[in-house]
């Protein structure tokens, strides 16, 4: 059987529904990526998210000078929405206003009684007498029965055509979804290839600089040796001349009666060759004649395209299921909870890709994930697809390694790792390859620490907990990169154990999660207390042993609510927005990638999860 009219109307409405407000499009605007949204919905989104990203494919949108209103209109969709609303209105009027009788349009007081076969119209008695008297007629009921099968066949055929076009729209949606996934994979592959090439170029650069330094040292040593030899000759001649002058001043008799040292020294150097220039061989860099390395090529891969539907033969169609939703996805209502797309990797152990105490995480602008693997005393590096890239030990100096508590990244792309040995705590700066750049000592307290970087001021923010359990005192120490203490934050607000998790938002505000006093403390960039939110519990907006904390580009605050086994999102004022995920055992550390992914570490499962579309 053909799909019922109400089912077709529902499917049309789904295709013409804005995915932001879930209502029919109002003044629909088309983004450069091809997705369509209501003008008001886009204006609201643009005011909260800068730069604007498409809610469907996350592609960044460069707005025209007039803003959202300057985006192109979708007149076709607007017309379809208007027609659907009119059809809905007409259907409602038809249901509400039952027919008052079959009246003749020429003679309103007359009832249509017979059907004229020759003219193929129903007529009343007056029409029959005036214009159809000699025509063949039949009853209206019989005529309707004869026409019923023909009309029903046309209805079925029309329904089948509509269903076929709806099927085509569903296939377009699936194709679009596949294209978005392919683009993400391609972008990630390009970034990975670039990072690998940069790594090789960096290694080659370091090797060439080492060769240049060695050549320079050899040349400088030659010059120094020759300088020392000539200076010795100068000293000997000068000393002989000085003594001869003194003897000359004492009187001619003494001078003439003695064999002076001057005679011997001058005689020694009279036949000696003068110093010759030192032959040095400075190193010169000669670039290779090979062209600049090429990352690769972006080729166009043919995907199965959605076929253009042909007009089908009038065959019966199966009734549409109430669970069928175009594209295989639907909106979540009521208590249904959306879980984001997730890539997960990691197990317990000491091999690559395994962890023992993964307490800290950060993500570079290039999309590399750095995990502080505490008990393995190392930093492991992965791509945003979960592919292992490299690792390096958390060395303090020489062969001494420290347990890594947390890791942050500064404005130049270098890492700051805080941790300690059995007797001391340190803050160490590494480059991305693991070379130690600088370090400074911290007070050894026995409690874990967290680290974040204020890239605007180039300040290193480190949490510190002092005292004995349960009488703990928490604070944040603000350092310059050379280890100079600039400020101490949070001593007056009752912070107890800031559980080694701290972050700095885009405005420079300092946010600290307190594991022991379950809330989040917020300070401005000068360390002045602004507000706190949370409070112990499991309800919306409450926290239980909060750990990792980060912010997204809109300023929303994301907290790993470890005790409640969930990751929460709050707005910049601390107002609860939503549960991001509730299917982890012990979410510990969180970090936001520039590309929009959220990285979450599950300490109990020894796993790293990369969440998208949350």
Q: CATH class of the largest domain, anyone?
A: Mainly Beta
Instruction: Count the E strands.
Output: 33
Query: What global shape is seen?
Result: elongated
Give the distance, in angstroms, between the N- and C-terminal Cα atoms.
40 Å
Estimated radius of gyration? 41 Å
Counting helices, strands and paired strands, the structural category is: alpha+beta
The CATH architecture name of the largest domain reads 6 Propeller
| CATH topology name of the largest domain | Neuraminidase
Number of helices: 7
What would you note in describing this structure?
This protein is α+β, with helices and mostly antiparallel strands. The chain has three domains: 1-92, Zinc/RING finger domain, C3HC4 (zinc finger) (Herpes Virus-1, 2-Layer Sandwich); 192-318, no CATH class; 341-612, Neuraminidase (6 Propeller), CATH 2.120.10.30. The chain contains seven helices and 33 strands. The protein has helices spanning 5-15, 39-48, 75-96, 125-131, 140-250, 252-256, 261-270, and strands at residues 28-30, 36-38, 114-116, 121-123, 137-139, 341-345, 347-348, 354-355, 358-363, 369-373, 378-382, 388-393, 395-397, 400-401, 403-409, 415-420, 425-430, 436-442, 451-454, 459-468, 471-479, 485-489, 502-504, 510-514, 519-523, 529-534, 546-551, 557-561, 566-570, 576-581, 587-592, 598-602, 607-612. The strands form ten sheets. It has a four-stranded antiparallel sheet with strand order 6-33-32-31, with no helix packed on it. A four-stranded antiparallel sheet has the order 9-10-11-12, with no helix packed on it. Strands 15-16-17-18 form a four-stranded antiparallel sheet, with no helix packed on it. Helix 1 packs parallel to helix 5 and helix 5 (140-250) packs across helix 7 (261-270). The protein is elongated, with a radius of gyration of 41 Å. The model is unreliable at 1-5, 93-100 and 311-336 (pLDDT under 50).
